[in-house]
TrEMBL record:
Record-given protein name: PAR14 polymerase
PARP14 second RRM domain mapped to chain residues: 5-83
Natural source organism: Podargus strigoides (Tawny frogmouth)
Source species, domain of life: Eukaryota
InterPro entries (UniProt xref): Nucleotide-bd_a/b_plait_sf, RRM_PARP14_2
Length: 139
């Protein structure tokens, strides 16, 4: 078992379950409360939701509970840990922004950042790939 498991759980195939229903279901399974203990980001175009646990829980055990849950099975949803990564993609970046500015912005602890090892700017897409020295900086 890894020393640090991801606090992020991905729910796939969520289209049959409304965001409100999903939040209640997650509260029932985890015994925690939404917004205080975890957040849910629904990404409808990908048919997924990402649950971020603020409260420290055994996410591997939570994923196991979800896979055995009657309602999760009825909705035909699946849950899995979101693998930790050292890179993120930032979108909608204005044309005038430099890689130095992006680096300083994402290194700001106040913004939840950390030491950045690389920034690749894609001006034609108004996006950038930011790579952190450690996966903790991309929360």
């Amino acid at each position: 078992k890894s020393a640090e498991t991801s606090p992020l759980v991905v729910f796939e195939n969520i289209k049959g379950c409304s965001p409100k229903c999903l939040r209640m279901l997650l509260e029932n399974i985890s015994g925690l409360s939404v917004s205080e203990d975890f957040t849910v980001e629904v990404i409808p175009e990908m048919n997924v939701a990402v649950v971020t646990f603020i409260q420290s829980i055994d996410t591997e055990e939570f994923v196991k509970k979800c896979s055995q849950n009657k309602r999760v099975k009825e909705f035909k949803m699946t849950a899995r840990l979101l693998e930790l990564t050292q890179s993120i993609k930032a979108e909608n970046i204005p044309d005038s922004v430099s890689t130095d500015y992006i680096t300083v912005y994402f290194e700001s602890v106040r913004n939840g950042g950390g030491p950045v090892s690389d920034v690749q700017l894609f001006p034609e897409e108004n996006s950038a790939i930011i790579t952190f020295c450690d996966h903790k900086g991309n929360a």
